Amino acid sequence: MMRRRSFLAAGLGTGASLAWMGTAFGARSDPILVRVFLRGGLDGLNAIVPFADDAYYAARPTIGVPRPKAEGGALSLDGRFGLHPSLRSLVPMYRERSLAFVQAVGSPAPTRSHFDAQDHMEAGSLTGRARAGWLGRVRGQLGESDFAAVSMQDALPLALVGGDAIALGRLDKFGFAGGESVRARSERGFAALYTGDDGLVSPAGRRALSAVARVRALSPGSYRPAEGVDYGQGSAATQLRDLAMLIKAQVGLRVATVDVGGWDTHTGQRARLDRELLRLGTALSGFHRDLGDRMANVLVLVVSEFGRTVEENGSGGTDHGHGTVMMMLGGPVRGGRVYGRWPGLTKPQRYQGRDLEVTTDFRAVFGEALEKHLAVSKASRTLFGEERPPVPLGFLR
Amino acid sequence: MPLPTKPLLIAGALSLGGCAEATAQPRPAPSPQEDRALVAHTLGRFTFGPRPGDLERVAAMGLDVWLEAQLRAKSDPVPDPFRYATLPPLELFEEATGQRMMAEEGGVEEAVPSAPPVRKKRNKDIRKKLKSLNFKKLASAYTMAQLARQISSDDQVVEVMTDFWMNHFNVFARKGPVKFYAGHYVETAIRPHVLGRFEDLVIATAQHPAMLNYLDNVKSRAPLEGRALERRRRRDAQRMERGQKPVRRRDLNENYARELLELHTVGTTHSQADVVAAARVLTGWGTADIQNGGGFAFKPKLHDRGTKTVLGRRFGPGLDEGVDMLRFLARHPATGRLLGDKLCQRFVADVPPPSCVERVAAAHQSSGGDIPSMLRAVYTSPSFRGSRTSKLKTPLEFLVSSLRALDARPVDDRLARVLYRLGQPTLMMPVPTGYPDVAEAWTGSSSILQRMNLAAALGRGKLPGVELTLDRVLPLNAEDLVAEVHGRVLSGRGGPHTLMVLRQEVAKAKDPRQARSVAIALALGSPEFMRQ
Predict the structure, then answer these.
(1) Tens digits of per-residue pLDDT, B264-290?
(2) Which of A112, A253, B493, B494 matches a 20 to 30 Å C-alpha distance to B186?
(3) Which residues make beta-bridge pairs with A35?
């Protein structure tokens, strides 16, 4: 466990302007929620393997993950479920109880369309006509900072629509294009331009320039994670590393979105999941270790729009399904458990005879995260409207 | 019903130099300064922005004359390099890849339709082949099919209205089959009608595979009722007992009917019962097998043969009754108000002034939904003239107006990526409401930052996908650079603060090239240029 002073030193590279860091938008105790969306439909059954259920092996003769102790076998979590071996970097977090899973979670809505299902999960609503996201809608309760709601992608996902949010993309590229002097000239010129007050463009311009300056002051290009931390390769690694830097810099960040593609494994699933899960696991555990004791108020939710068919198809893969897995990571999590009621995998137990049933509504998880972690009022309302909200899982301390 | 001709006068004939409804007195002749300002304002709203020389040309011609000519124009044809993206799926595939779609036995030319199993296989093969097309490339192509004309066409009101109706009748190109129809949709369902009758737009979009797929009407069929429903339930129960999955049967899908009522026509003036009834009217409105072109096809087997009541009007079974319903909805007074809201929001202010909305609604009723009549109502409304610089440009408007101001010429599809980065990729809005047209949607930090980057790039004279020769617009040896930029790029609308900053920054430049670069970047990034 690193001491606080060395955290700051490690995180800021050139040590430029610590002055504004102190003007904290929110002390360290303010909670942070990170939503990691695995787009394409994560095969929850191969990620968190129900190795105790024989029906799993009957349905997946070639792509099933072997039982624990066998070669390439699942890493047992609780005797019923095991981790895909590529996720081995998550084991320490599970053992120290800062990581939990929900099996058979998802949307009650009967859709297998990426578009519709992602829509529901981003909006936190099943009506399919939402114009705002589950995080955007509560943005007003998250404080004044320009960085309260950030997307680590170039564009804002639906989850953040509805409130003030900023799409940062890669931090070392955020800002003006061009070489050093060109950028400096651009910034100075526009800064002068926006000192006026037309009430619309100038304020927006000033805020944009301020965001650029603040990100640059972090020296994102020369950020070094904590000792011994390796985020690995891939999109999740890049986004989570940038996010860790932002969190350490205490810019008033409260919610962040990370998006990772490549999970739509209709074909060649074994090799693809081997690779993607390895990258994801490495990035998540790197993030956890890099933040160290700051993880005390960080909650990471890893979600996906739906799961995949119980039975493998003819191309070594699986097709769009229903129930899937969610991961919850961070200090506030009552970890070391797999939550949710396991519905079974025999044909009559499946959703429409083909997919894993959904026994936990994803909105229950989101609702608990909003209410207990972010302390947002009326969270149930924004997610469930007039419906009666289900009993919370109780996955947060 | 034939289009009435009288309403041209009632809606406010322009040549009489005044609005017949608002005042009996003739408008006082505007001073030359005001005239030019009004021209700049009108071009700022009714076009994608003036090109060098446009202001003078239109001022000389007279705004009223100019607008009338614009309202009579038709869409330019799609420029050649992007034409393939506007073809129907089979031809699109062939043009894009140079391969004939059906080389195998049987082929598309079979006179006798195949028995179901073979037909299904062929459809699957065709879909697989279509999926092999590079979607990004295709999306860039149909984006350019619009962008190229938005930048270069002289028929600017056609282009502005094409963008308006594309948004009003939004489809999301990423959703399933829509991707292969998106370009064709704009070309054949939207463009021919943008300055025609509103009901023709409603019918054309309702019958286009892009819309039918986007809002799921292809999945809709008459719901089972009574004994047929009981039989089905019994059968499903038996299958479940045997451990078999229940037979999946499509049911009534209300998606399209709901948006048709709420977003396309009457707005909130309807009930859930109306939605269900309208959905039943539209059952059977689907598409032909893709191997037969994949166009609109009415399927009697899926159609609900009952009588339905929508907003108090009864409709019987059949395709024609459905078309009648669409006409009824298109001409409904509530539709006039909805269109008034949207047109006045687009052309006047984010919060549409009620007087403007009323005028458009009245024009809609008296003209039977003639779009030019509604546009004239906007143009002649006092609130239009009083609304200078009240709107913020959308990313698309910002991009196109910058390129027009600098007389840039579109060259290749790399320009599509620029539009994507600005945050408004063509037909990529998942929500049926389309892209918003209010300032608060586009003033986020990332949004403004991208605009600044674009302005800076254009100042340097380089943007992917366009031919840009700054010397054509602002020669390096200009006498007074700031005055030139103010006149040509800002249409004379620069405020004192912006002009002061321009002078200040230009003075710091180390040579004329840098001076010009700075002047253009700051002019395009100025509040005056970002506003409309």
Answers:
(1) 999 999 999 999 999 999 999 999 988
(2) A112
(3) A257, A301
Give one DSSP letter per residue of B440-470, joined into a string. Answer: GGS-SHHHHHHHHHHHHHHHTT--TTEE--H
pTM (2 decimals)? Answer: 0.84
Predicted local distance difference test score (pLDDT) of residue A197? 83
- Residue A353 is nearest to which of B244, B430, B444, comparing CB atoms? B244
B-proximal residues of A, 323-382, CB under 8 Å:
347-348, 352-354
Q: How far is A380 from chain B (nearest CA, A)?
A: 24
CB A172 within 8 A of CB A49: no
Who contacts B449 (Cβ-Cβ below 8 Å, separation ≥6)? A175, A176, A208, A211, A212
Cβ of A78 under 8 Å from any chain B Cβ? Answer: no
* Greatest Cα pair distance in chain B: 89
Q: Considering only CA atoms, which of A117, A157, A115 is closest in space to residue B176?
A: A115
Which string of DSSP letters, residue by residue, matches B22-75? T-SSPPPPPPHHHHHHHHHHHHHHHSS-PPTTHHHHHHHH-HHHHHHHHHT--P
pLDDT tens figures, A102-156: 999 999 998 888 878 998 999 998 876 677 899 999 999 999 898 999 999 988 8
- pLDDT over 80 at B100, yes or no: no
User: Min CA distance, B142 vs chain A (Å)?
Assistant: 21
ipTM: 0.82
Nearest C-alpha neighbor of A196 from the set B392, B507, B522: B522
Structure tokens at B477: 């040896």
> Which H or E run contains B277?
helix B272-281
- Between helix B395-405 and helix B135-152 the angle, nearest 10°, is 50
| A190 to B525: CB separation less than 8 angstroms, yes or no | yes
Residue A54 and residue A277 in contact, taking contact as beta carbons nearer than 8 Å: no
